[in-house]
Design a protein that fits this description.
By secondary structure, the chain is an alpha/beta fold. Helix content is about 25%, strand content about 15%. Strand 7 and strand 8 (about 230) form a beta hairpin.
């Protein structure tokens, strides 16, 4: 499938949530048409504890490949997976197959490659496109927003020869609380590695929803039975007019939107 075809599967015209599917990671990928027969059976078990509820929206903040796979599993339960991935994998194009990526498909940050390794994300998006085409999701399906918890490179140093594709999320990347409420959403479940506070950039999003009356829950499992209520603590500079400009200092914007570029001093750019 071409980049456009893959994107349209993830962001279909009949879904109200499609405007929030970020096109950046789709721009350079070409997916092979080889189906992975194991995908369906794996997805049956990943999110087996979830049941769709029209008043529940989900935010998944796990390492990218895990986040996309859980989103596909939730699609089986009736949720609409919405990838909010704003980092470029690097200068492409990338031919992605269902097989596990080989070490040389994308170079690592240590060998003048990308700061955020997106091989698993690309592979999961390709497999997900094949898989989602087999489903008939309702136009009113509640959303599951998919993030990459490694979006800031997991704290690894970024070298002068690194393709800097670190990125953050902002409130503008998500629907407003009012729109969610108009669609019947009253609760938001955050899925991450622990049930504590979210990453700082995501806390700006969730705090706005919390202030508008949405109930926030968090779980570190693949089910909602162990979810606990959480209250987001206001991060520093909350609602400051200059927050966005300050937040992206040190990050590299791509020429065609999103984040991802070679540093000016790099010989690779």
């Amino acid at each position: 499938m071409t980049p456009e075809e893959v994107y349209r599967v993830w962001a279909p015209a009949d879904s109200i949530w499609s405007p929030w599917v970020v096109p950046v990671p789709f721009a350079e990928i070409v997916c092979t048409n080889q189906a992975n027969e194991k995908v369906g059976s794996e997805l049956e078990t990943i999110g087996a504890e979830f049941r769709v509820s029209q008043d529940l929206a989900i935010v998944i903040d796990l390492p990218g490949g895990d986040s996309i796979r859980l989103g596909m599993s939730l699609a089986l339960r009736g949720f609409r997976p919405v990838p909010v991935i704003d980092g470029s994998p690097g200068p492409g194009p990338f031919l992605v197959s269902p097989q596990e990526p080989s070490p040389d498909e994308l170079p690592s940050a240590e060998t003048n490659g990308p700061a955020v390794d997106m091989r698993e994300i690309l592979r999961a998006l390709c497999l997900g496109a094949d898989f989602l085409r087999t489903l008939r999701l309702s136009e009113s399906a509640p959303p599951a927003f998919l993030l990459d918890s490694m979006r800031m490179a997991g704290g690894r140093p970024v070298h002068p020869e690194t393709f800097d594709n670190r990125w953050k999320v902002f409130p503008q990347d998500f629907p407003s609380a009012r729109l969610l409420q108009e669609r019947g959403v009253t609760r938001v479940l955050l899925i991450q590695k622990d049930r504590g506070q979210p990453q700082e950039d995501l806390s700006y999003v969730l705090l706005r929803w919390q202030e508008a009356g949405l109930k926030l829950l968090a779980t570190d499992s693949c089910g909602d039975a162990n979810a606990i209520p959480i209250e987001i603590s206001p991060p520093s500079r909350y609602k400051a007019l200059w927050y966005r400009a300050l937040a992206i200092l040190g990050l590299r914007r791509g020429k065609h939107g999103g984040f991802g570029a070679w540093p000016p001093s790099s010989t690779s750019g």
